[in-house]
Specification:
By secondary structure, the protein is mainly beta. It is built from 1 helix and 12 strands; from the N terminus they run βαβββββββββββ.
């Protein structure tokens, strides 16, 4: 797969990132089965399909143990983004250790537009809200890699 990383704020040269990026390079996801695939104890991915939503129907999240590599295979979506240091919203769900997620509500943020083949990599300090519609609603097929830090 040709991958265009449109958002990444850190260096990604760990063995776990290498495993994920090599797997992405060597595989096609257009026809991959939906659901979870485990590569090892610290790297897995989910293949998802959904229709994008109005911004008001999405939520921001962050993680403590894992980074996300979010890759749009087909469709178009916006992802909201805000750095944790600029956080000016509210925590709507405190940290859930089992799901490795904190949920937030924000009113000010940047939007990142992802097209097929585009990827965004989010670290623990990157609050992000996927599944936002761009100009119009879109059916999206996406792969989300979870890479343990």
């Amino acid at each position: 797969m040709n991958l265009n990383i449109v958002f990444c704020r850190k260096r990604i040269d760990t063995p776990n990132f290498k495993l994920a990026l090599d797997y992405i390079r060597d595989n096609l996801f257009e026809f991959a089965k939906l659901g979870k695939t485990i590569l090892n104890d610290e790297v897995y991915f989910n293949v998802e399909e959904y229709e994008t939503k109005e911004e008001k129907d999405t939520y921001f999240e962050s993680h403590k143990k894992y980074c996300d590599i979010q890759i749009v295979v087909s469709g178009v979506e916006n992802i909201g983004f805000q750095d944790i240091d600029s956080f000016s919203g509210e925590i709507t769900n405190p940290y859930d250790d089992a799901k490795d997620v904190i949920k937030y509500k924000l009113s000010e943020y940047t939007k990142i537009k992802l097209l097929p083949g585009d990827a965004a990599i989010f670290f623990p300090e990157d609050l992000h809200a996927p599944k936002m519609k761009s100009l119009e609603f879109s059916n999206v097929r996406k792969v989300v890699f979870k890479v343990k830090l």
